[in-house]
């Protein structure tokens, strides 16, 4: 029995062996030898293609080569081995031709007929057994139709015809289609078909099973006449009419297509509630796509039809409509549903757990971006247990509370969960809501802002977890050492958190199954652990934007031969990295090294002649200090690369002519970034795939090539800025139909702008021609902006007035217009202020005049400074979104408008250098976002409102050059300054690499690879005085400037001590006011101040010695005050200040002044000498004056009493006055007599007084010199005796001698006439 069994087993083994051999023989002959007639026809097809595009033989279909005569099977002439061809395994006849996108270009919308392919249909009539013909995306022209498309009907086996993406094909093709009765699959999508649906033409295609007419121009409905309703397209199973303009009535017209299983009506023009009853006849429908259709409300199915409508439907896509929360209740009858997409609808409220529980067959559910905001109660959550087949749920971009996590734990079979951006930002991770999903494999929690440390305990139960994405949160601390517990992990992302610390030898290194590791955008530091080389399965490694340091050892990377994607950019690596260590990485596709320092070098040339095994698609080696040997321009290994799509070698000081062979070898190259090198010219080799060329900052000279469109016909982004290019801009550049961005700024270009830039046909969106020598009246006439979005024409020599907007302009896209620093004149037309898309307008420094027009344009940036605009500031502007408003240096009058109260988003407000008047409005203090406020050089008056102290974020406040009075508000110390950057931003223009699919990774696979082109956004430019220099400041520097300027006003009182609390301020100017009192010692707390100007006031006291503690003070001016005492020591910054900082303060002494200060020992010996003998004691002065008046009156009355003559004369005078004025009282009489005597004797009295004071001044000058010589000799009493003698002798001279004849009076008068300012001559001290 056993032997029989053994024999039977051997027999069976022999039989199986024979079958395997036969199978191998058959399989080895998968492609038969092609038919000679068909081989020649294929070569004719290639010849037709080459003739159309006048390109090199190897450019298209390189394997289609005629080696002359040969025998079948020799491999030379066997066309079945050629690319894009399938042959019958038995007959050798060609059965499939996949000739799609033969040019490999992304120019399906080209309309230049010279670039279209006039293919002759007759070439395909040789392929009798052809079943599939794909000619999509080949720019076929109408000649293809005219050569007799109907003749393809002779190909009886032709079942598949794909003509999609040929935009020149239109309705003329429809009659020819009638004859192709054998077709089962027809694809005419992305063509120029239009009008009503061509029912009659498709009636003959009775075998058609799949029809794709998406993205054509059909509209209206899909009408089938009565008698034909049963026969037309009766076998059709798949219909795609997405992206047309059909309305909801098309659904009713489709009722006859009873075999339809898949229907795509997305992107149609529908509205209202979902017409479910219209689908009653489509009982076999399994897949329905109604996304982007405009439906709203709910999804109602009425009465008896509830159980039959769409009962077989498995996949339903209702995304991007306006359905409300009741839609899920209506869908509960669709019990066969396995896939449901309701994303981007308006289903506010809690997660509809109970409603979903009826869809028991559901496997995939997408409720992302549906405005859900809470979790249901516990009972409703328990109903989710019914969804036993649900494996994937997407709830991203909602706003749940934390209890949603425990609710979802009721799903028994869930494997994929996406809760990205679904919680309130900045909350802690809900550790208490522990997941209990034992089968979970994929968990997305990115972009929630969770803080704290990474909660490994929350993931401990996920033994099958393969992907964990925690990127875009706020986690801190180190990467948990317990992460090896998740041993099934294949992909993990902690990117863009705040993780710090170094990578240990344990933890991540123990995840042996790890395929993808993303740690970018953190603060991790230290060296990379060598244990990473043990992750042999690793395909993606991204550690960019951290602080890793040390030497990047080649041995670490050399062992990771499975790598496909590496990104080590933006770290602190040092030393040299040998690129040849990657030579054996066969699968490597993406390499990114973007260095931020000069200590890291990528060595590409050692060992000499090394050959890479990889074929890269993306290579970025920016700022990597690559050193090329003599005769080499770029790395030598690139000669072996043929699949590059993006190459970035910017900032490497590479020099010479860029080699054309690199462009020739890499026909799919889309992006070439070579900025900031020393290349002398741009590559000139035809590449239809090239989308971006950036050669900015290379110092190229010469003119722009005229034939750029010939070499790069589909160029999308061209940046040649910051070179030395001259000459005119060739008009051919305006013919680049795909050009989206053109940057030729910072060159020496002249001439006028090509008219092609300003046409409706142009695709140009970003035009930057700043800082050239271009001229002409570029904005005159009727303007057509086309697709232009950002336009920078600043800093040229453009002239003329702004013309009218073209009446044909129906679409407004212009968002930014910068024409500053030109020679434009006239007024700003009204249409500019009324452009609904214009958000930024910069006309700075031109010669515009008149009033600025009102309008509704949503300006966020408006700079009209340095013109001649006049009248009041317009109060009718749309200020709702205004962030930067610069109106300075014009001729505006009136007061600051009340409409400025609406500047709730403003960052910069400049209305200085005008003729505004009135008070500073208090509501300016309510503009809480304000960073810069400039009101200088107007006619503003009254006091500084204390409400300005509420502007806590202000960094620059300039109120100088007005007529402001009152004191300096002490509350200004509340202005603490900004804490974030607001003036340094870039606009990143991003676009996809569309010609090939995105990088296929778990983490990045959902995101296509983009090219980035940075365009600096419109920048603030303001003028501010610091260190006595009135300069312009622009852009990011404004984030670091802080200053307060109250100079040239009429401010009084003392400087508040509280201003010393402005610790962040860099410039403080209080000069040219009427401030008094001392310099606050608290100014020593101004730790960051660089410029302090207190000149031209009436400040007294000393210069505080504490100020020498200020380390950054480079400008200090206290000149022209009344300061006194010793200056601070010449230490630190004070050692750099000269006499000019202190001039006009005669009582200051010490270096750098010439005035020496009395030492301490001298002061103790001569204490009395410290007081000037000519100083006035005010108490003694008032006492002596009063005593003199009393003595005079007593002497006057004593004289009347003693001398009878004077008494008689006095009494007669009184009687005479009474006779003349009988009503006068005694006081009036006395006053009259005194005045009368004063008037009669006034000339004589005046002469006496004049002589007295002249002699006194002369003798004081003399005695001053005597005093200075005898200051340390004469006793103090002698000095007083000298003064007494001086005054008495002078008085006697004046009283007893006639001043006219007195020689001393005449001498003093003559002397004083020659030297009229003795006080000035003596140092300014005598006036005291």
Automatic annotation (TrEMBL):
The reply to whether Nucleotide-binding figures as a keyword in the UniProt entry is: no
* Top-rank taxon: Eukaryota
Query: According to its record, how does it sit in the membrane?
Result: Single-pass membrane protein
Q: What PANTHER family is this protein classified in? A: RECEPTOR-LIKE PROTEIN 12 (PTHR48062:SF21), RECEPTOR-LIKE PROTEIN 14 (PTHR48062)
The name on file for this protein is Leucine-rich repeat-containing N-terminal plant-type domain-containing protein
Keywords carried by this UniProt record? Cell membrane, Glycoprotein, Leucine-rich repeat, Membrane, Receptor, Repeat, Signal, Transmembrane, Transmembrane helix
What taxonomic classification does the UniProt entry list for its organism? Eukaryota, Viridiplantae, Streptophyta, Embryophyta, Tracheophyta
Q: Which InterPro entries match?
A: Leu-rich_rpt, Leu-rich_rpt_typical-subtyp, LRR_dom_sf, RLP_Defense_Trigger
Q: Which GO terms describe its biological process?
A: defense response; response to other organism
Q: Which GO terms describe its cellular component?
A: plasma membrane
The similarity comment for this entry is: Belongs to the RLP family.
Signal peptide: which range, if any?
Answer: 1-32
